[in-house]
Design a protein that fits this description.
EC number: 2.3.1.267
CATH class: Alpha Beta
Shape: globular
Helix content: 25-40%
Strand content: 25-35%
Protein name: Ribosomal-protein-alanine N-acetyltransferase
Keywords: Acyltransferase, Transferase
Number of helices: 6
Family: Belongs to the acetyltransferase family. RimJ subfamily.
CATH topology: Aminopeptidase
Largest sheet: 8 strands, mixed
Distance between the termini: 27 Å
Number of domains: 1
Organism: Leucobacter exalbidus
Radius of gyration: 16 Å
Length: 205
Amino acid sequence: MPIGHEISEPAPRFAGRVGLRLVHPRDANVLAVLLTQNRGWLTQWEATHPSGRGSVPGSVPMRPIIKSMRKQLRAGTGVPFVITYDGEIVGQLSLAEISGGALQSSQIGYWVSQHVAGRGIVPTAVALAIDYLFEELGLHRVEICIRPENAASLRVVEKLGIPYEGRRASYIHIDGQWCDHDCFAVVRDNIPPELSAALRRAFEV
């Protein structure tokens, strides 16, 4: 599918107990509760506006936010997923900055509730997302940017064998300050063995 126009609603994708599906307005209450319960777990990694404007995630109605997120599909710039585990929503994964033309790339961002952390959910969800970007959208490159202090997220790219490209200084405003991020990226014609193995396991289930 060429990028640069509306993206069709993706079908849910599953690998054993882990699933990815497009976020819906009906998910608003569940996501609001998760965001509220995980304030201490997530705040240190969340993007903030340099001006100080903005609201605390979970403190404002989620339904309008979800509708705004879904507009990315119509613009052809992003795909907002929820991550499920045994059918229960446990986090979110967003495909952003989807570009066509000579770039053909996207970025992945994610969070998962602390109560299910460490179960291999995020690596599986990221593998499913990368497969979707390469096989369904036909992109060339996928990028994940992670704060050097975020050991849990660094383990995700390590498990999938996604190569390190370099550090971006003062890249994103996080939790009230400009923060460095380490960049990891994979291209369609050079899939790391660890990622290939993760995808095989996912689709053998």
